[in-house]
Input
Amino acid sequence: MNPVDVALDSIWPAELRTDRLLLRPVTPQDADVVRELLTDERVRAYLGGPASPERVAARQAAYPQTPGAWAIVRITDGRTVGLASIGADPRSEGRAEVSYQLLPSAWGGGLGREAVGAVVSWWTATVPDGGPVVAVTQATNARSRRLLESLGMILVDQLDEHGSRQCVYTPGGDQDDSDLRWLGLTAAHLDEVERRRGAQARATAAGQRLPEDLTILIAEAASLLCPACHGTYGRICAREAGHMPALHLGRASDGGWVAWLEDFPV
Ligand SMILES: CC(C)(COP(=O)(O)OP(=O)(O)OC[C@H]1O[C@@H](n2cnc3c(N)ncnc32)[C@H](O)[C@@H]1OP(=O)(O)O)[C@@H](O)C(=O)NCCC(=O)NCCS
Output
């Protein structure tokens, strides 16, 4: 289990209070707000667009079971105005990611900032072994970036995901020179090295025997492939199960050839 999930499990359920908000675990009674958030064009503008009815139903069922998923309740009127969550970041093992969304009627009053600030401070103070925390937001999501920057969070990395440029923020201040910053830089360098090595390995006789398009393999052939849990999200190793040497060789999610060792944090 990812160390972030382990840390969360040990302290969940948790409630957070700020001057104007209560963050409490999502319940099945929040289903209407979940649907509203997932289908609102403005809320979903930088999150892949409005979700399908199937996805809405899946999220309505999953949130109440998910450690780290809070409903954001405005104390003055008791209304649920959004969701905030913290969980394992699939891009980097041991790193937590915070996400947040408010109904447009609650924008513009600093409530998002208050909620995200509470989650980040709580994680840092309550979960000392929880690892670094990041927020990932589209480069063009100006409101979200303003929110993070107003909390003093700093931009440590950028990446392309879901067809858009994404900015990775982490708490700043003393952490300006944090492990995370170095990890980000090392990861970028490592990716370059792995791609170079991948292109070289693909050009060898053994590399050329590997299938070009792994997605068209019939299930039987696919089941013979290396089943390892790979270092970077979306990577597929094209080698056969149990291959030696241990270096994985395959395709990254953007189709480029990469070679990598499983244990590297990428
Ligand atoms: C991202 C999101 C939460 C930002 O909401 P927001 O209300 O603009 O952000 P904040 O809570 O920081 O509020 C800041 C605004 O409130 C104003 N404000 C008013 N009173 C305030 C107070 N007491 N404290 C702080 N700001 C206050 C600020 O001046 C600022 O105004 P501005 O946007 O004109 O500069 C919201 O746009 C949203 O839910 N978007 C959809 C989901 C999404 O994209 N999530 C991000 C990726 S996970």
In short: The helical segments are 3-11, 31-39, 53-62, 111-126, 142-150, 179-203, 205-208, 219-222. The chain has two domains: 3-181, 196-260.
